[in-house]
Design goal:
Trichome birefringence-like N-terminal domain-containing protein; globular; TBL_C; signal; four-stranded mixed β-sheet; single chain; alpha/beta; 9 helices
Length: 372
């Protein structure tokens, strides 16, 4: 892996400060301290730290914060509209240990983002999160004062009175996937500009990239890896992932100004795909504990890349908290089932990767709002 200039700091959500006071400049970030800030608040006058990633799920009747009639939801995640018989999965909120996660406040979020752009970049799970964020916000905006625009696989929700936008940019691998000779698909581990050109000038960038890197040969999106002029038929997926993330990290270090743009990287969203995709079917409550907590390899690789960056990137760690929620996937309710079809659910494919909405991504966005 390439060597970087010694980093000045890496902000990680496991050390994110719950609240700020005394901002003295328009800069997103306070650049006072050098060194690795794994635990902020070394000065006595700083507020209490809050680790949002460690806690428990608590049942709360006041949730969800919107319903599945939100017009911006795609069919595959509207589990209630698709006939899911239970709705308890919508009513769990996340309670971090030792502090509270602020409830999402749409007007406050819009106020913070006035005249700004927030862009979520990644795969279909990030699209899942984008739909959640739009639905959390759109209810307080009158009809005629909001719109969605589309540009290929990318899209943007515009809150016209606030002159702000919530955007989604499709780039599941971050680096470039191109057609090569004989129509072969080539994943260029060291090229990124074709995707990155859309990220310039954005005030808040939220990235994810994990799932596509581990697709099996049957589902792989490429035929070859390429780095420089070297072509590879096979490569260890985590080595390829590290190389791709390193290309992304170099681009951020060289092209983004931390005084103008906040960069957040969301960790891998867990899947509950064991038992041929049926592990999440008919689950109605979160898991209570893990007998053997496991940190996915993607998280280890991601943290390693972030630590070598000079740009201060926030790690939005949702992996373990979401792993409890095997009850919150669409399963067979990724499509509308009529009464007869519901009698034979195992005849249909089960989605244990994406999330029902309202649901878990709403909590991710509560965390995101607290970070901005």
């Amino acid at each position: 892996m390439a060597n970087y200039p010694h980093f000045t700091f890496v902000f990680i959500i496991t050390s994110f400060i719950c609240f700020f006071h005394g901002k003295s400049s328009s800069s997103w970030l306070n650049n006072e301290d050098n060194g690795v800030i794994m635990v902020q608040g070394r000065r006595e006058d700083r507020p209490t730290r809050c680790d949002f990633s460690v806690g428990k799920w608590v049942y709360d009747q006041s949730y969800p914060l919107y319903d599945s009639n939100c017009p911006y939801l795609s069919t595959a995640v509207t589990c209630q509209r698709n006939g899911r018989p239970d709705s308890g999965y919508e009513k769990w909120k996340w309670k971090p240990n030792g502090c509270s996660l602020p409830r999402f406040d749409a007007l406050k979020f819009l106020g913070k983002m006035r005249r700004k752009r927030i862009m979520l970049v990644g795969d279909s799970i990030m699209r899942n999160q984008w739909e959640s964020l739009v639905c959390l916000v759109q209810g307080v905006i009158p009809t005629g004062h909001k719109k969605v625009t589309y540009n290929g696989l990318s899209m943007a929700f515009h809150a016209l009175d606030f002159e702000m936008s919530i955007e989604f940019s499709w780039a599941p691998l971050l680096v470039e996937l191109k057609k090569g000779p004989e129509n072969k698909r080539v994943l260029h581990l060291d090229l990124i500009e074709e995707n990155a050109r859309y990220w310039r000038g954005v005030d808040v960038l939220v990235f994810d990239s994990a799932h596509w890197w581990t697709h099996s040969d049957q589902w792989s999106s490429w035929d070859y890896y390429m780095e420089g002029k070297s072509l590879y038929k096979t490569m260890n997926p985590m080595i390829a992932y590290q190389k791709g993330l390193t290309t992304w990290a170099k681009w951020v270090d060289l092209n983004i100004d931390p005084r103008k743009t906040r960069v957040i990287f969301r960790s891998v969203s867990p899947r509950h795909n064991r038992q041929n995709g049926w592990r999440c079917y008919n689950q109605k409550t979160p898991l209570k504990f893990f007998s053997h907590p496991h940190v996915p390899e993607q998280v280890v690789v991601l943290k390693g890349v972030l630590k070598r960056m000079s740009f201060p990137v926030y790690l939005h760690d949702v992996t373990m908290m979401s792993a409890f929620r095997r009850d919150a996937h669409p399963s067979v309710y990724r499509r509308a089932l009529n009464q007869a079809q519901r009698q034979h659910p195992r005849e249909f494919s089960s989605d244990c990767s994406h999330w029902c909405l309202p649901g878990v991504p709403d909590i991710w966005n509560e965390m995101l709002s607290a970070m901005i």
